[in-house]
Amino acid sequence: MLLQHERIWITGAQGQVGSAFARMLDTTELDVLLTDRDEVDITNMDEVRAYVEMNRPDVIINCAGICGIAFCEENSDLAYKVNAIGARNLSVAARSVHAEMVQISTDDIFDGRAEEPYNEFSVPTPVSVYGKSKLAGEEFVKTIAPRYLIIRSSWVYGNGDNFVTRLLKSAETQKVIRVQENQMGSPTSAKELAKVIYRLLEKDAYGLYHAVCGGMCSRYEFARRIMELAGKNTEIAAGDEDMENGRPSYAVLDNLMLRLDGIELPVSWETALDEYMKNALKEWG
Ligand SMILES: NC(=O)c1ccc[n+]([C@@H]2O[C@H](COP(=O)([O-])OP(=O)(O)OC[C@H]3O[C@@H](n4cnc5c(N)ncnc54)[C@H](OP(=O)(O)O)[C@@H]3O)[C@@H](O)[C@H]2O)c1
């Protein structure tokens, strides 16, 4: 349960998920600590230890990560350093001050060959360096932090670089954009994911949870809906490759544990996208 004045440390606080969660906590009485790479590099055990000893958080939310699939393939050591060793360092620090450790993870820990949604009991078989490094991060959290939450999400878009913003940027210069039709997922706004993180903390939940918006669609459908909401005429053409940038072709997660624990589910991907686009279009003018 989140208590008033409890101290919450968010790493990767300027990222999509970190900033969405920080915004959510704005109206609470919680004592929120926000850091990014410049303040605390999570790969540096000494920095992490010193920060935790000085600030003694009750909860550590690790929203830091290296997420680009291609970037991780090219920078494998760095991917493991941030996504796995970073999670290990924070778990060690959480253990030393009896804090709860919250790790954000991904559908990329699965190989994307399934034909039905992956739930929390499906066996992970990552194929990319990104997926392997994130799974290694999960393992560290599970084995080191005595009190932990691992929350896997998918196709996240928020305040930052993501599929929605990249597509709209491409639409400024291209008349036709090709997007995979056979890549399936559940687009999830960082805001909906932040709400789930909050609900899980409020309920004192522990363990592994999937948290994605309701329903599923192909990248192609997702792209068409984005263009429609943005009022753009750019044509979205169906592509025919299996993978887009090495992402699993079937990335649909089932929120089984949220359902079993009776925790409010995120809204549908269409509703979340409508809300995001309305706000984004206002902000972008
Ligand atoms: N985006 C998705 O589709 C998605 C889907 C499922 C799960 N996730 C997971 O959700 C988490 C957050 O993702 P996101 O989309 O919010 O990513 P993001 O926008 O790229 O944010 C990641 C943040 O981590 C920071 N960071 C990187 N290396 C660091 C280090 N060594 N020490 C401290 N901070 C560091 C980054 O800072 P810089 O900007 O300085 O690098 C950035 O602020 C990640 O763990 C990711 O694996 C993401």
From TrEMBL:
Family indicated by similarity: Belongs to the dTDP-4-dehydrorhamnose reductase family.
NCBIfam families named in the record: rmlD
Species lineage: Bacteria, Bacillati, Bacillota, Clostridia, Lachnospirales
RmlD-like substrate binding domain location: 7-279
Name of one Pfam family that matches: RmlD_sub_bind
Any GO molecular function: dTDP-4-dehydrorhamnose reductase activity
Function: Catalyzes the reduction of dTDP-6-deoxy-L-lyxo-4-hexulose to yield dTDP-L-rhamnose.
Name listed for the protein in its UniProt record: dTDP-4-dehydrorhamnose reductase
Pathway it works in: Carbohydrate biosynthesis; dTDP-L-rhamnose biosynthesis
Record has NADP as a keyword: yes
GO cellular component, one term: cytosol
Keyword Metal-binding belongs to the record: no
InterPro entries, per database record: dTDP_dehydrorham_reduct (IPR005913), NAD(P)-bd_dom_sf (IPR036291), RmlD-like-bd (IPR029903)
The entry's keywords: NADP, Oxidoreductase
GO biological process: dTDP-rhamnose biosynthetic process
EC number(s) per entry: 1.1.1.133
Enzyme class: oxidoreductase
